[in-house]
Design a protein that fits this description.
The chain is built from 14 helices and no strands. The protein is an all-alpha fold and 364 residues long. Among the domains are: 155 residues, Tetratricopeptide repeat domain (Serine Threonine Protein Phosphatase 5, Tetratricopeptide repeat, Alpha Horseshoe); 80 residues, no CATH class. Helix 7 runs antiparallel to helix 8, helix 7 packs parallel to helix 9 and helix 10 packs antiparallel against helix 11. It is elongated and about 195 Å long.
């Protein structure tokens, strides 16, 4: 067996493996080619996508440029509008300021005029107050005669400064005190027509009350009721006005309503003798118990022991039962203290109880 050298052995191996190496090389080349083709395809796809995005981006950019242009236009228009509006408002405010300046000047002048007028009015009021002195209030004066005395005091104090309406007031009270009810009515109405604005509501209430008395004595109970209601409306605490309203209602035949008015008058001022007599008189007309009637009459006599009306009515009621007490009542009557108005009422009571002889005996 021949000996094989190293070179030969290497050559054999090289010859044997050479085909395999060529085949392997060819396979690798084929794979590389495929990968290159795939990469080229991907690159083309990426270029296509890139081109698409470039187109879209360019399109969107153009849209944004268009919108930005419109926005700039809108901003320009808005700027022009705001600037114009500001200018117009400035003109309006300037014009308004000018107008306000004129109005302020006018108002200042008017304020000065008003201030001067106020000063004139205050001076006029002061002068009038000085002229008329103290404006007396009838609610604090029990009788018209006292009101007349107050007017005379004012006349003495202020002399020639007395305004005409105080004199008219005084004339009305003089006629009222003298029982000249027709004359008093006319003078009171004259006072109301000419100077009602100068009379405060308290005094006005009492003037209405006096007119109610006038109309009652002139046998005009409807008018008496109207003025009495006006008096109590102005002054619900006017006790005498409630009494006058009761008298008017009594003469109109509304006895129960009259009694309510007398009770109201007593509730306000319980120390008025006349209203207690009127209450007793209407209780007689309503047929109330003698005890209740005498309580009212006794209260009237207690307040004014020389008041003839309650003495007459009490004497007539007790004439047949308590002759002694009745006689005592009649003996207390002083004819010189009886007014013409009360005398008519006294005569009516005596004739109602058929005691005409007693009336003639006392009054002649």
């Amino acid at each position: 067996m021949k000996k094989i050298t190293f070179h030969k052995t290497f050559l054999y191996f090289f010859v044997l493996f050479l085909p395999f190496t060529a085949i392997s090389q060819n396979k690798q080349d084929t794979i590389s080619t495929v990968r290159i083709v795939a990469l080229e395809k991907q690159i083309k796809e990426l270029q296509t996508i890139n081109n698409h995005y470039e187109v879209e981006i360019e399109k969107q950019f153009k849209d944004l440029e268009s919108k930005y242009s419109y926005l700039n236009l809108y901003l320009l228009i808005a700027t022009i509008f705001v600037t114009s509006l500001g200018f117009v408002l400035s003109l309006i405010l300037y014009s308004r300021q000018k107008s306000l300046d004129k109005d302020q000047t006018k108002w200042e002048n008017n304020a000065k005029d008003i201030e001067q007028q106020a000063k004139n009015i205050i001076n006029k009021i002061k002068t009038e107050q000085e002229q008329r002195g103290i404006l007396f209030e009838f609610q604090d004066i029990p009788d018209p005669e006292d009101g007349l005395k107050k007017i005379e005091e004012i006349k003495q104090q202020y002399k020639d400064k007395i305004p005409n309406y105080i004199n008219t007031w005084g004339k009305a009270l003089i006629k009222f005190s003298n029982e000249d009810y027709a004359g008093a009515e006319q003078t009171f109405l004259q006072l109301l027509n000419n100077d009602i604005k100068r009379i405060d509501f308290k005094n006005l209430s009492n003037i209405y009350r006096c007119l109610s008395v006038c109309y009652s004595e002139l046998n005009r109970p409807n008018m008496a009721l109207v003025y009495a209601e006006s008096a109590v409306t102005l002054r619900p605490d006017n006790s005498r006005a409630w009494n006058n309203k009761g008298i008017a209602l009594d003469r109109l035949g509304q006895k129960k309503e009259a009694l309510k008015c007398f009770d109201m008058s007593i509730e306000i001022f319980p120390n008025y003798a006349n209203v207690w007599y009127n209450r007793g008189s209407v209780l007689v007309e309503l047929g109330k118990k003698e005890k209740e009637i005498l309580e009212s009459l006794n209260k009237s006599i207690e307040l004014n022991s020389t008041y003839a009306l309650p003495l007459v009515l009490k004497g007539c009621i007790l004439h047949s039962q308590e002759a002694k007490i009745s006689k005592q009542c009649f003996m207390k009557i002083k004819s010189e203290n009886v007014t013409k108005t009360d005398l008519k009422e006294i005569k009516r009571v005596f004739y109602k109880y058929q005691l005409q002889d007693k009336y003639i005996e006392i009054f002649g």
